[in-house]
Amino acid sequence: MQAGEIGVGDIFFELGDHSLSALSMIVSVHERYQQNVPLGTLIKYPTIKQLAKAIVSAEVECGELVPMRMSGQKLPIFLLHPSGPYYIGGWSFSGILAFEMCVQLQQYDIEVGGLFIIDSYMRRSHQSLKLELSLLLDWFAWELIGGDQGIDNSTILHSLRSQSNKQKFQSIYRLAIEKGVLPEHTKLATIQQYFEVFKNNLYAGLQYKPQKVNVNITLFRSANPMPSVLLEAHALLDSAYSDSMNGWSNYTTKQIHRHTVAADHLSIIRNPAVNYIGKLLQDNTQT
Q: pTM surpassing 0.85?
């Protein structure tokens, strides 16, 4: 975070921060206080004062659930609200998850009002691939620190390619701390966990066999050129990165509305791009 002096009542995401800043804060809380804070909790309690109160009162233990009552001895009841319409969206791999959520909701005749895809890509083919660990580390490095605060770190990342996998992982760990992506006291095991999530998400995407949906898709596509490391990745994965609709045209029976955003794959979820997207989402969902 680079917002200068911050008060206990300042709202985290109004300070110009983004998901990597949120990751850094979550890691800091975990390392210092041994308390897991889901991202949803940070969204629900976005100030230092609110978050501290939530941690002390153990409200964060509920994870993604929203409790109606915190006490009692009887069996719990979990309430679902499946009527819709739902507006679903996601960035990068989460865009694929949002699409599959839409598929499953429509299979149960639950209305989906709209699907919002932020710089996610479909593959042209869906053949399985076996990827070298060194390649995965290269891509992970760019995802984690490649677009740090809008700075092009491609020269630094290319220097990692001559290193062994063990050296490369140590370098990624060191660079993430030096660039301020992760706090200084972050343990190596923590970034290893993030890499496992990254790897599992990538392989889940490679194994995914999408079906068509019957819903309008709004696509937010980054306009800035891809760095060479990502061009190589998309070519190897056979993604539809060169297609004007990122390959989504084949997977809906309705229309796709494309918005080209002056950003790259990482900065598209930071200010000012994310404010532009947020305004369009509000207009499209009338919320």
A: no
